[in-house]
């Protein structure tokens, strides 16, 4: 009867047995999609024991049929994890609905297992360290701490906290780089922060120091796989009895190749494979992206022909074939007519006869970093040119400058007093406070001896009182610096470089306001013997103020350059920006104002930049000058001419330079 119900419902019944022993044997023989198991069976083995024995050797779903709903039997049956129960007497609707639910559960569990297996394979293929952090930077678990042990430190946590905060505020992925000292060498890492469940932070850390190792691993892995395939193919031809086992091994290899191919395809490195005839056989997504062409457009093209986007010079391809390997920079004009630069290494893969059958190109896109280096070098040359020009002037510079200052004293005084007037009458703080208090006086409602003030007006007054208080705190800070000495500590050239990087990272939070960017010169080991004496807290404050000023008074979508170098045995730090035209029509700083800009209340612009969270009272550069002077250094603001773009007139840029006289170790 049961078989008839099932077949009428569209199911195929492969067998019917009456004993537990036979149920086990037939189930393992037939391997059906599902078993309907009566708990009461003939023989010494009941349905529950039969189900347990089947599950030891095969994962076949079971639904129990029973007339006995005794709690003890149900508890025994639960241990075998059945997919359902059908109580007798049953009908067709009960039977089919239970089976449909069971098959739905089977299919869902199958998809879940496949998904989990796929995720595990992907995680194993990713070379990054993946762990989780709490919002305060602490590890979520001991397992996370163990995973991050060699690539994460307390200093990195401190550096990453601003990025964690920004990620939590915006919900967007944050990326930052850092370095760790290991056995007298530096390891460099890239950390990617993304939101995780429960308000946690998912961290993926990538070691970017040894990218070149991927080429060696690629060659070893390919050779290893070729050896395995060759060996297994020979065994299959001679050992037919091991055919199934060898097929399984081959499937495993193919699956690994698919995973490996996926990893290469999504790699941030540029990867291309060229055969011995110079024909492109493979490019990954990164290579296709920088070349500006689709995969199908590139595969089959020959690098030995003019116009190739992978190896644009046929002479270079000839050199590669002759030498068998090559490394250096490849400059490409891609399909979008954009100049691209790749730091590449090309090596050959040889066949059994020792001939190069393929060439593997692995490289990094260094286009942006190269542009930044060239721009910084040009600005460095502009600073040197400015200094050389100053040294060649035959006039007494100081005498000339004093004449200029005396000639323009009324103009300077007018500008200074105008700035003081603007500081105390415009913008947030004093000026707004006076306006609000006057408005409160005229709008307050009299109630006996008291006045009733609108809540929003009162809140605005309190806000501007606090801004004014911050201004007075700045006054006090400047006064304290003038009247007191603060402690200085010795810092190596590298320590100073890292401190500057920290300031640049903090100031980088404001680059989105004008869509600007900040670039910094690379650390030069040549200057490692130099050291300075600084107070890191005050130096941080001074440099932060200089960079924010550069950002505020620069044109939108321009670059702020930060250069650390040594000139005439003095450690110098320059911040260079491309200024907007001032209220009086100047571009940059007028010569007679180069010292005045450091005077209290001096402002190059009457505008208020509240979005930068700074006080626009003309006190920032005054604070900078007092801090640097206490360091025994000198700060200078001047214009320089950038001649780097030959297609237009030299560009006037503002350069603020801090100079520390320093002994050599």
Short précis:
The chain is of the alpha+beta class.
SSE layout and pairing:
Layout: H1 2-8, H2 20-30, E1 35-38, H3 47-57, E2 62-66, H4 71-78, E3 85-87, H5 92-125, E4 129-133, H6 142-147, H7 154-170, E5 174-182, E6 185-196, E7 200-207, H8 213-238, H9 243-265, E8 270-275, E9 280-283, H10 285-291, H11 295-298, H12 314-323, E10 325-333, E11 339-350, E12 356-365, H13 367-392, H14 397-407, H15 409-425, H16 430-443, E13 445-447, E14 450-452, H17 455-483, E15 489-492, H18 493-507, E16 517-520, E17 531-534, H19 536-552, E18 559-567, E19 570-577, H20 620-630, E20 634-642, E21 651-661
Parallel strand pairs: 1-2, 2-3, 16-18
Antiparallel strand pairs: 4-7, 5-6, 6-7, 8-9, 8-12, 10-11, 11-12, 13-14, 15-17, 18-19, 19-21, 20-21
Please, could you describe this protein's structure?
The chain is α+β, with helices and mostly antiparallel strands and 665 residues long. The protein folds into four domains: 2-122, Rossmann fold (3-Layer(aba) Sandwich), CATH 3.40.50.2300; 129-207, Beta-Lactamase, CATH 3.30.450; 268-365, Beta-Lactamase, CATH 3.30.450; 383-422 and 485-661, Heat Shock Protein 90, CATH 3.30.565. It has 20 helices and 21 strands. The protein has a five-stranded antiparallel beta sheet, sandwiched between helices. Strands 16-18-19-21-20 form a five-stranded mixed beta sheet. Helix 2 (20-30) runs parallel beside helix 3 (47-57), helix 15 (409-425) crosses helix 16 (430-443) and helix 17 (455-483) runs parallel beside helix 20 (620-630). The longest helix is centred in the N-terminal third of the chain and has 34 residues, at 92-125. The protein is extended, with a radius of gyration of 37 Å. It starts with a helix and ends with a strand. The relative contact order is 0.05.
